[in-house]
Design goal:
Layout: E1 25-30, E2 33-38, E3 50-52, H1 54-66, H2 71-81, H3 86-102
Length: about 110
C-alpha cells in the first residue's frame, strides 16, 4: 500500500473499536490502480489520494459493506475469503487501519 504523506503513528489498541469510513472518501480505479480519494471541497488536498494494493482494496470494500466495522470483523471476513491465518489477517488489517486512521479516513 502506498500513502501520500507521512504522519505520526496511530495505534488501534482495541480490536473491537467500532469504526466507519467517512462519506467523503471513495475507492476508485484510476489507470488500473485502486485509489482512495476525498470528494467534495476537501478533494483539493491531493495529499488525501491514497493508492491501495489488491488486498488492501478488498479490505476497504469489506469495511464499506459492513458500515460499522472493527479490526476483528474485518479479520474474520479476510480469513473466510482467503486461506490466511488469523494472526496474518489481523496483522494486515491492523496495519491498513492504522495507516488509514492517520489520514483521517474514519469517523
Amino acid at each position: 500500500m502506498v500513502l501520500a504523506a507521512p504522519h505520526q503513528k496511530v495505534f488501534i489498541s482495541n480490536l473491537q473499536t467500532i469504526m466507519r469510513i467517512k462519506n467523503d472518501f471513495v475507492l476508485r480505479e484510476v489507470c488500473g490502480e485502486n485509489v482512495i480519494m476525498c470528494e467534495g471541497l476537501k478533494a483539493i488536498d491531493f495529499r488525501k489520494i491514497l493508492a491501495l494494493n489488491e488486498s488492501a482494496a478488498w479490505i476497504w470494500k469489506e469495511a464499506q459493506a459492513q458500515g460499522d466495522f472493527t479490526v476483528e470483523s474485518l479479520t474474520e471476513r479476510l480469513c473466510e475469503e482467503y486461506e490466511v491465518s488469523t494472526e496474518e489477517a489481523r496483522s494486515c488489517v491492523t496495519e491498513l487501519i492504522e495507516k488509514l486512521d492517520k489520514e483521517g479516513v474514519f469517523e
